[in-house]
């Protein structure tokens, strides 16, 4: 009896794991046509939404995910692919402010402060994506983050009827633990949109992002920012 129960439990665990894996792959397939790896292929949109993450690990080492997202935002902005950068991140504690940190680094790298909009209530990906439409009145925008995060963000956007694309910036080489967490996060996202029908923690009044800039004719002539150049900016900031 116990042996049969044990085997039944193993089968159940196996089926659950296979289902979770299938859902993970399905999310990647569903969003693949909206993800762009190369800057020159990225379509023009007025707004680029940079999804926040911590700048430093607890050890004090800079977070490469953050570095690549800031680099991608600069490249998209400098190449004329986006006119505004909406920085969406966590500001749950007074000592931790993702949007403000991103703003400081982007301004130091040459972005016009007038072209930066802050979303302090992007506590999670769903909040950032839905608030971009419902608070900032933007329904067609470029998401800037790593590919695995692109896919989850786009999945939420598609479910909400949002016409988004994603610029997939590079990922650090060693990302196994992050990918495992993403596996669980995707299941959570599916539960959020299909079961719990979750909404952002905060919404608030409408704050439209103005449309005043035109795309320059020589947009592609602007140089991209390399990771090495961005690291130099980080070093100068620490001095």
Descriptive terms for the model:
single chain, 239 residues, alpha/beta, Rossmann fold, 6-stranded parallel beta sheet, 7 helices
Walkthrough of the structure:
This protein has seven helices and six strands. A six-stranded parallel sheet has the order 1-6-5-2-3-4. It has a single domain (33-210), classed as HUPs (Rossmann fold). It has 239 residues and is an alpha/beta fold. Helix content is 47%, strand content 13%. The model has no long low-confidence stretch (mean pLDDT 88). The longest helix is centred in the N-terminal third of the chain and has 30 residues, at 2-31.
Secondary structure elements and their pairing?
Blueprint lengths: L1 H30 L3 E2 L10 E5 L12 H15 L5 E5 L9 H11 L7 E4 L5 H10 L5 E7 H13 L3 E7 L6 H21 L30 H12 L1
Parallel strand pairs: 1-6, 2-3, 2-5, 3-4, 5-6
Helix pairs in contact: 1-5, 4-5, 5-6
